[in-house]
Write a structure and sequence with these properties.
The chain is of the alpha/beta class. Helix content is 41%, strand content 12%. Strand 7, helix 9 and strand 8 form a beta-alpha-beta unit. Helix 5 runs parallel beside helix 6. Bound molecules: zinc ion.
Length: 295
């Protein structure tokens, strides 16, 4: 197909002196899109999440701490608080909601949002401040969508997402991790979690996770690149650029063959001795390009 993929991002998502790749790389992915993909991908400024929206997924204590910087101890739980950090996470959480609505209307979209799936209702964790995946899912359900599937292929488990959405019968989670961090368990058949130890098993587990989500009315793809063997945080030996390219192709094939609207978030992806920020951008472009092929 030859449409233009819409990806939500604006300068308001960027942070001065970003403390980690989570808050640093969205600007670099946006620059790459502007430089090399303007014929296939358009960047659209998101509407920041409102306080009322944030209160559907988080406690007022957490929302107010991040919004105001007070009390400073709580506000700096995930990253040292600053006005640009607060503006960034509030805006990129809105980007996820906008990507969901755009995907429901046009088939596919994305948000240059990272740092979502470890955030719980009452507090953020693991570089994640607000859970934009949860806001995206609840927005879709509120808009009348029957069921939402969340494919979480970040290196780490999405325990925050499960804690917020796991009891919602209209949400199905399929989580393929390569790390024990933020593990969750559920007795509900609608959820699926796998932890890969051997890279040889990785793509097979992704296929199982996708099969598990067959039948949902919307897919949220938490497209973490931190399983890559070069990442200092999360990386599993044997998971290469080629493996992650194949993963993104599998996800796109599933979206195409099932006709399911889908929105992606960047999620994890970290430098290592042999992996530069530019390399991380290359990896996230695998997701952007796979989704650009859907529209
Ligand atoms: Zn991760």
């Amino acid at each position: 197909m030859s449409g233009i993929l819409t990806v939500f991002h604006s300068a308001a998502c960027d942070v001065e002196n970003p403390p980690r790749e989570t808050l640093e790389k969205p600007r670099h992915v946006a620059e790459r899109i502007r430089r090399d993909r303007s014929h296939r991908v358009q960047l659209v400024a998101p509407t920041p999440a409102s306080r009322d929206e944030l209160l559907t997924i988080h406690t007022s204590e957490w929302v107010d701490a991040i919004s105001t910087g007070e009390p400073v101890g709580l506000a700096s739980e995930v990253f040292a608080w600053s006005e640009s950090y607060a503006r960034s996470v509030i805006t990129s959480t809105g980007a996820m909601r906008d990507a969901v609505r755009h995907a429901l209307a046009h088939g596919a979209a994305g948000a240059l949002a990272a740092g979502l799936h470890h955030a719980r209702a009452e507090i953020g964790a693991g570089y994640c401040t607000f859970n934009g995946l949860a806001l995206g899912a609840l927005t879709a359900l509120d808009d009348g969508v029957g069921s939402v599937g969340i494919l979480d292929v970040d290196a780490h488990n999405g325990g925050g997402t499960h804690s917020i959405l796991g009891s919602n019968p209209a949400v199905r989670i399929a989580d393929v991790s390569v790390s024990p961090y933020d593990r969750w368990s559920s007795t509900a058949d609608r959820h699926h979690r796998a932890q890969v130890i051997d890279a040889e098993d990785y793509l097979g587990e992704v296929a199982v996770a996708l099969e598990h989500l067959r039948g949902v009315d919307l897919l949220l793809h938490n497209a973490g690149m931190d399983p890559h063997e070069g990442c200092d945080v999360g990386g599993l030996p044997g998971i290469t650029d080629t493996v992650l390219a194949e993963r993104e192709r599998m996800v796109a094939d599933w979206i195409r063959s099932t006709g399911t609207p889908a929105a992606f978030a960047l999620a994890g992806g970290y430098r290592g001795p042999e992996l530069t920020l530019d390399d991380i951008v290359d990896l996230h472009m695998l997701t952007v390009d796979a989704f650009a092929g859907l529209v």
